[in-house]
Structures are given as C-alpha cells and as structure tokens.
Amino acid sequence: MNLAEYLVIIGFVILVVAILAVVITVLVLLSSDRKQKQHPILRNFPVLGRVRYFLEKIGPEMRQYWFNSDTEGKPFSRVEYENVIKSAKYQREVLGFGSERNFDQEGYYIANTMFPKQTEEMKMDRDTKINTKKYILLRDSLFGQRKEKWEDSNTLAYLLHDDDAVVIGPNTRHPFVVKSLVGQSAMSFGALGDRAITALSEGLGIAKGTWMNTGEGGLSPYHLKGDVDIFQQIGSGLFGFRDEDGNFDWDELKRKSDMGRIKAFELKLAQGAKQRGGHVDAEKVTPEIADIRKVKAYHSIESPNRFNQFTDVPSLLDFIERIREHTGRPVGIKVVVGRNNSIVELAKYMKETGKGPDHITVDGGEGGTGASYQELMESVGLPIKSALPIVDATLRHYGVRDRVKIIASGKLETPDKVAVAIAMGADLVNIARGFMFSVGCIQTLKCHSNACPVGVATTDPELQNALVIDEKKYRVANYLLTMRKGLFRVAAAVGIDSPVHLKPEHIVFKDGQGVTRSLDEVYDAIEKQVKTGIQRLDQLSTDLSQEM
Questions:
Q1: 533 has pLDDT over 80
Q2: What secondary structure letter does DSSP report for 184?
Q3: What is the CA 120 to chain-centroid distance, rounded?
Q4: Three-state SS for 36?
Q5: 10, 40, 57: which is the final residue of a domain?
Q6: pLDDT for the residue numbered 369
Q7: Integer Cα distance of 19 and 62 in angstroms
Q8: Given the DSSP bridges, would you call strands 301-302 and 405-409 parallel, antiparallel or unpaired?
Q9: What's the pLDDT at 271?
Q10: How many CB atoms lie within 10 A of CB 542?
Q11: A GO molecular function for this record (predicted)?
Q12: How high is the mean pLDDT of the chain?
C-alpha cells in the first residue's frame, strides 16, 4: 500500500474511534442523568438538558456582549463602561454623531447659560502638570488586532485653585486640604488584590491633589506605594486597629496617624450595598491579609453589624472626639440614608453640643461591594440623588452645615453625574467602580468568588498576573484627569468659573411627560419633608415627656 492508502486507513480508524467515544459518552451520560435525583430536567431530557445548563452558564456573557443594547446592561451599561475605558486608556472624551441617552425618560439635566465662560476665564491651578502615558489608536480592523501607539503625555492636572481648595477639619491640628473634587472610594486590600491596590495608589499619586480610601480592611503596604493622601477607614471589625483580644488599639491608631500619609479617619457605619460590616470569603483571606487585619488566615470574615464602641449618637460623637484629640486628624463617618429624618438626631446633637464629624460620606443604595446579600443590596437604603439633599437640608436646618463636608458616593462615574451630586449638596465625590474599570475590571460580577478573570477583585496570584501595574497606573491617572477636566467644562457651560460653585439652580429635572422643574424646586420639596419630619419628632418627644 502506498502512503495515501495508509493515511485513509488511519483517518478511518480515528473517525471510528471518535464516533465510538461520542456514543459511549452519550450512553454514560444518559444512564447517569436518568438515575440522578437532583435535576428533574436531566431525568426527563438526559444530555439535552446539559446543553440547557451550558447555555444558562454563558448567558451573562452573551447578554453583555451580544443581546443587551449599549444602554441596557446593569450595574453599568456598555456605554457607561466604555466612557470610563476611553478616558482611562486614550484620554478620549469626545463622542460621535449623537448621544445614546433616552431623552424621553425622566432625569437630571445641567442648565447651561447662553454665555458660557471661556477657558481662560476658568479659575483653576494653572501651574501643576502631570506626566502620564496614553494610547493613540492607529488601526482597529474587524479581524486584525487593534494597533495602538503608547506615548508620553504631559498635561495640566486640572486641580482646583488654592482659593477653592476643600478643607476637611479646618479646626483640627492637621486639617486635610484637597484640590480635586474626585477621589477613590473605600476599597479594601482583600476585596481587591495587591496589584490592583498598587496600581490605584501609584496612579492617583501621578494625578496629584486627590486621595484614596483604604476601606475597612486596614492599611496595607500597597496603599502606600504611590504618593497619594489617604483616608483611613475604620470598620466595625476594627481591622488594622485590633489588639490580640479584638479591642480597639489606641496605640496603633496613634502610630498610623503619625505616619503622615494618613490625612483623615472615617468610621464606617454603613455602606450602600450592605447596611452592615463587610464580608470576605475564606479563600480570599491570605496569610498577608490576615496579618494586616489581625484575623485568622483562610477563615471567612464577618464584620459586626455595628461598632461595639458606641450605641447611639452621643456615644458616637464622644468616640469621634476622642479619635480627633488622640490623632489631631479630621474624623468623619460613612452612612446610608434610610428616610427623611434619619440624620436629624445627629444634626440636632451637633447643634446642641458643638461636637460632630468633620465629614460625612453619604453612600447611595446603588453603591457597589465585593460581596453582599441580595436583600440588602437591592432594597435597603436610599439612592444617592435622594439621600444627598436630605443630609444637606437637615444639616442646614440645624445650622451646622458649614462645620462638616459631605462626600457623595454611588455610581457617579462621569463628570456630569459628579456635577449633579455637587449641585445637590456634596463637597466631594468618591468613586470606586469607575476606578476598578480603569485598572481592568470587565464587570463579570465575580468579585465575591476570588475568581476575577482580570486579576482585580482577587487575591489569587495566578489571576493577578493579568494586571500589569506599570500600564494600569497610567489609566487610573488618565481617568481622574478627564473627570476633573470634564467638571471644569460643565462649570464653564453653566457660566461659573469653578465646579465648586455648582448649585441647585444649575440643575433641571425633567419628568417622563417633558415637564421640567429646577433642582431648587425639588430641593424645596425635600426641605419641607425634612421640616415636617422634624416637627413630628419634636411633637412625639413632647408627648412622651408629658406622659412621663
């Protein structure tokens, strides 16, 4: 036989073996599927039912990339995601042809003026520049690999003018001065891997004038990699501030305060996606993370629902005063608003005693997390655009608004959303998931599983290899740069020289029927609700006093 005949025989044998393998596999699956008792669909439709489970498994990816429109995806649509990516990767802030926003739906709009400010009229720091890197897109064909050029970029930092800098805790021994309206929200080492935290720290340091919040997981060496100011968050689990018995360690607090890099402390009372302390699955608690948090390695971490160090507003404010006196640093709280009068007791006690936090971080119910429970994530806590005016109006009603800075958080990943939040009463804005996008997050929703495929929300060393710090840090800087630049563009459009001057009068709300109201009107309605709630509480307090 010649070579061709041998090849035909070999090919025929391989084909027969393959067919036999498929037949045997199907018969085995038929038998096992018929006998198993867990899945009824497999008992009635063996093998075919497995196809159904396979399609169900790949459903999220199919919807994200194929079936959802550009504006449909949740938590963030494709458009929202790409806005961040293009800013981070290319410093690209322009769109073509037209917006994909549904203008028939209700929503907030920025009220532009007929005579906007010129660029040279804007009041900003015109001396500080930053050196970063960005991509230039050269070719993006359908089948070929995208061709890009990686080049240096020296640009204005778009920081606030010294006159407009935001000062947190002006009466403390060490006030915290920031020249960026946007910073990084709380993200713990453990929820995110060391490479992600490092890239964020170094990128924010490149951008200058901003901050990063450690999250409740404690201060790690990776938070200190970049030259960036730090909000040290303290959660109910006291991670990083625990002694051997789990009590609050005042000596450790002083040691961290004296480091200089920590500019302010924040007590986390609640988070938008979970009205309780954090949760970390056992597989994410590596020995390094356990050492930083002072817990056992490879054991799940469940923070208490609240602090054991205080039980009410008076004891909370006493604890804040003690930390402030012990460190000389500003001290604030992170809260979630549940109803109109939920902040009343705090504001009232601040007025009566002169005590109070230096800042209040208001986290909306739409905020993100590494892991939470469905019922808490979906339904507990007001969204940020409802919560912000309540906090601002309540503090103003009691005359204590000027003593505290408000930091807003909750899906505020683009300049227009940040502008609305500032007009609603925020002094500063925290962003978490936008910065996660900038270091590579593709929104697979696996943050709780330690299986993040791009190495962001995982402590798995192999998966983290996907994240290249020396590239992603520049994306972080670029994203923040374009956010700040965009805020100045919005300010110019409404006729003011700095975004710090955004007020309710600069925002309009349009309902589904096309009827518009200024945010001033919406704000007035919220203030009336706040005052009504306060009156009811006062009346209830009076009635109880009389009964006693």
A1: no
A2: E
A3: 33
A4: coil
A5: 57
A6: 73
A7: 30
A8: unpaired
A9: 78
A10: 10
A11: glutamate synthase activity
A12: 88
pLDDT one-digit tens code per residue, 76-109: 888 888 899 989 988 888 877 888 888 888 899 9
As a whole number of angstroms, the distance between CA 445 and CA 272 comes to: 17
Distance CA 240, CA 242 (A): 6
User: Which one-letter amino acid corresponds to residue 125?
Assistant: D
**Start-end of H helices in 266-425:** 287-293, 313-327, 344-353, 374-379, 384-397, 415-423
pLDDT given for residue 24 in this prediction: 86
Q: Is residue 362 part of a domain?
A: yes
**Residue 484 belongs to domain spanning:** 152-510
Q: Concatenate the DSSP letters of all residues of 113-134 into one string.
A: -SSPPPGGGS-EE-S-EEEEEE
Question: How far apart, in Å, are the Cα atoms of 260 and each of 119, 159, 245, 263, 498?
Answer: 36, 22, 27, 7, 30
Beta strands in 114-197 (DSSP E): 124-125, 129-139, 147-156, 159-160, 166-168, 176-178, 182-184
**Angular region, 215: left φ>0, alpha ψ -120 to 50, beta rest:** left
Q: Which of 426, 410, 433, 408 is nearest to 507 (CA)?
A: 426
Residue 99's H or E segment, with its range, is: none
Nearest to 204 by CA among 412, 484, 456: 484
Spatial distance between the Cα atoms of 106 and 114, rounded to a whole number of angstroms: 24
Whether 46 and 174 map to the same domain: the answer is no
Within-domain flag for 422: yes
User: Do 189 and 53 belong to one domain?
Assistant: no
Distance between CA atoms of 84 and 415, rounded to whole angstroms?
A: 10
Domain membership flag for residue 380: yes
First to last CA, the chain: 111
Q: Which residue has the tokens 């924040």?
A: 266
* Arithmetic mean of pLDDT, 111-130: 95
- Amino acid occupying residue 21: A
* Cβ atoms 407, 315 nearer than 8 A: no
Burial class of residue 359 in the structure, from the number of CB atoms within 10 Å of its CB (0-12 exposed, 13-18 middle, 19+ buried) = buried
| Residue 398: CATH number of its domain | 3.20.20.70
State whether 41 and 157 are in the same domain: no
Question: Considering only CA atoms, which of 124, 113, 127, 80 is closest in space to residue 366?
Answer: 80
Residue 390, token pair as written in the block: 């309540």
Residue 282 sits in the same domain as residue 404? yes
Cα(64)–Cα(80) distance, integer angstroms: 13
pTM: 0.89
Run of H or E including 204: helix 194-207
